[in-house]
Design a protein that fits this description.
Layout (H helix, E strand, L loop, with lengths): L4 H9 L2 H21 L1 H4 L2 E5 L14 E5 H5 L10
Antiparallel strand pairs: 1-2
């Protein structure tokens, strides 16, 4: 079954709360890029130490650069993640 991206966007990604979260993630990446340079974060993710969903923000002390595998490769219940 093919993934229906148009429906996915209309039903989830276009909602105001998702747009706000995406905006915060983009702002965090821009902040870190300005601080360490574009080359330092190429191919990497900017991670929030305290997640946005748990009240974390985009302050410099809450952001760190991580590899894509370690930032996106978590599974619920795995040790070190909640």
């Amino acid at each position: 079954m093919a993934r229906d991206y148009k429906h996915e966007y209309e039903s989830y990604h276009s909602k105001p709360e998702q747009i706000a979260k995406r905006s915060q993630r983009n702002q965090a990446r821009a902040q870190v890029e300005k601080k360490v340079g574009k080359a330092a974060i190429a191919g990497k993710d900017v991670d929030h130490k305290t997640p946005l969903r748990k009240g974390g923000g985009n302050g410099a002390g809450n952001l760190k650069v991580k590899s894509v595998e370690s930032n996106r490769g978590w599974r619920k219940g795995k040790k070190g993640y909640d």
